[in-house]
Design goal:
Largest sheet of chain A: 7 strands, mixed
Radius of gyration of chain A: 22 Å
CATH architecture of the largest domain in chain A: 3-Layer(aba) Sandwich
Order of helices and strands of chain A: EEHEEEHHEHEEEHHEHEHEH
CATH superfamily of the largest domain in chain A: P-loop containing nucleotide triphosphate hydrolases
CATH superfamily of chain B: Cytidine Deaminase, domain 2
Structural class of chain B: alpha/beta
Strand order of the largest sheet of chain A: 7-8-9-6-10-11-12
Number of helices of chain B: 3
Number of strands of chain B: 8
Strand order of the largest sheet of chain B: 7-6-5-4-2-3-1-8
Mean pLDDT of chain B: 82
Radius of gyration of chain B: 16 Å
CATH topology of chain B: Cytidine Deaminase, domain 2
Structural class of chain A: alpha/beta
Shape of chain A: elongated
Number of domains of chain B: 1
Low-confidence stretches of chain A: 300-307
Number of domains of chain A: 2
CATH architecture of chain B: 3-Layer(aba) Sandwich
Helix content of chain A: 40-55%
Helix content of chain B: 25-40%
Oligomer: heterodimer
Distance between the termini of chain A: 30 Å
Chain lengths: 307, 168
């Protein structure tokens, strides 16, 4: 997932920057760090940087000409090839729009500049992807239906059919939409090679359970298999059917058993729409917004250690 | 528009040429078994900080890496690797080339150093700058490690920069 875009000159002038998640201010320390690294690495590494790889995130580079560097920040589990494709697209569009103005100061209030941001939102930005996984009948479809918008049958990169919905969000800093998908847990794992690209592309897995003993036991087993395959994604549990007081385990017990944050839920109760909205926002805040905010902290930590 | 000041000297502990990494990833992908080889490059200094620049790789067919063997069979293969390294040094006319670490694959079992890997690192690559590169070709993941006595595991992940040497 791309979290930041930077277009900077080798002299350290920021020509464009955009943050998709978390705070939107331009972090001068990061720009300074990236520019410095680019120059130092050219000197000591003997060539242009293609990527800088840290524990939780990467900076992927492309070069427009001798003066311009295009950099995007991705999560460390994102395939570098995908990031390189986006960078190529970004670079081509930047030069197409601004080639004549490169000598002058680019007016970031201009219509052209605003259109460039629209282009980035449409073509470069990748919304976070949440996959609801669970056995048949646990309420995946009911949860999907609680969100407004059309549910569509999409084909993923391997031409597998996936039920998905593009959900618009308000009141969440930096994230205006996310993609919600649902799939049968057993089917996903039994056909791992078929769904590998789908699994790799998921940021957050929400395991939906009916909170009953049998389903929880099977879900735990399936989770142990999925965790190995998707080691860098985040996992949560939505403990549905909490209205079934006689058979449903409490969210705290489920959380203890799985070692995962668990949200109690009932898709049929009044207020379910608002409740699932709150749950998804909390998940996105924890796994996306806060994580990318922490990237900024990490960079500053690296700098202070290495000084 | 923001103008920056440059007043720091940051250096990555590892710089690796992109073509070397591509070759290693391809080798790991093409072999179902665990395989290993050497990483060859320069040991350099920038502002009193030591870093390595990986410029070449060595690989021998049949060099198997497995937990079945106590030290990744490097011992058995070391003589052959040494000869190959000497030839490489002669060919490149770069006398400063050194063995800066090793690489091996973990097909579908993620990136980490097993006990055998750690033993291999301690016996054969004990210097602070020497790295172990682990590649999981199935999960499409890779990571560099160095020894670190201060950690519980005895090793730590290190950050790295990939360099395109053809675009000087």
């Amino acid at each position: 997932m791309i979290s930041h875009i930077y277009i900077i000159t080798m002299d350290g002038v920021v020509r464009y920057s955009k943050s998709f998640f978390g705070s939107t201010y331009v972090n001068n320390d990061i720009i300074s760090f990236l520019t410095l690294i680019t120059r130092v690495s050219k000197k000591i590494g003997g060539g242009n940087i293609r990527s800088l790889n840290f524990e939780n995130f990467n900076f992927v580079y492309d070069y427009g000409n001798q003066d311009y560097v295009f950099i995007i920040t991705t999560a460390s589990n994102d395939p570098e090839e995908g990031a390189q494709e986006k960078l190529k697209l970004l670079k081509e569009e930047f030069f197409k729009r601004f080639n004549k103005d490169l000598e002058k100061k680019i007016d970031d209030q201009s219509e052209n500049f605003k259109e460039f941001s629209d282009f980035i939102n449409e073509k470069i930005f990748l919304p976070p992807k949440i996959l609801l996984v669970g056995e048949p009948g646990v309420g995946k479809k009911s949860i999907m239906d609680l969100f407004p918008g059309e549910t569509v049958l999409e084909l993923d990169d391997d031409l597998n059919e996936v039920v998905e919905k593009n959900v618009k969000l308000s009141n969440l800093k930096g994230i205006s939409e996310f993609i919600l998908r649902e799939i049968n847990f057993q089917d996903l794992l039994d056909n791992f090679s078929k769904y590998k690209l789908l699994i790799d592309s998921i940021d957050i897995f929400c395991m939906v359970t009916n909170s009953g003993a049998g389903n929880l036991s099977r879900t735990k087993h399936l989770y142990s298999r999925l965790k190995e395959r998707a080691s860098k994604a985040d996992f949560y549990i939505i403990a549905n059917f909490q209205d079934s007081v006689n058979s449903a385990f409490e969210p705290s017990k489920i959380s203890e058993s799985f070692g995962l944050k668990t949200f109690g839920f009932s898709a049929i109760q009044v207020g379910a729409r608002e409740q699932i909205d709150r749950i998804i926002k909390e998940i996105l805040e924890t796994s996306i917004t806060n994580k990318f905010e922490n990237q900024n902290l990490s960079i500053n930590t690296i700098k202070s250690i290495k000084k | 528009m923001i103008i920056m000041k440059f007043d720091e000297n940051f250096v990555f502990p590892v710089y690796i040429n992109e073509d070397v990494l591509v070759k290693i990833k391809l080798l790991c992908k093409n072999f179902q078994n665990e395989i290993f080889g050497y990483l060859i490059g320069n040991i350099l200094k920038w502002d009193d900080k030591i870093y390595i620049k990986i410029k070449e790789l060595l690989f021998l067919l049949g060099a198997i890496h497995s937990d079945k063997y106590s030290t990744s069979q490097i011992e058995g293969a070391a003589g052959k690797y040494e000869r190959k390294f000497r030839r490489l040094k002669k060919r490149s006319a770069d006398d400063s080339l050194r063995v800066v670490g090793w690489w091996h694959s973990h097909p579908d079992f993620s990136c980490f150093l097993s006990k055998t890997d750690l033993k291999t690192q301690i016996y054969f690559f004990p210097e602070s700058y020497q790295v172990a590169l682990v590649v999981d070709p199935i999960k499409d993941d890779l990571q560099f490690y160095t020894l670190d006595k201060n950690t519980e595991k005895g090793y730590k992940e290190v950050s790295y920069a990939i360099i395109d040497i053809n675009s000087k």
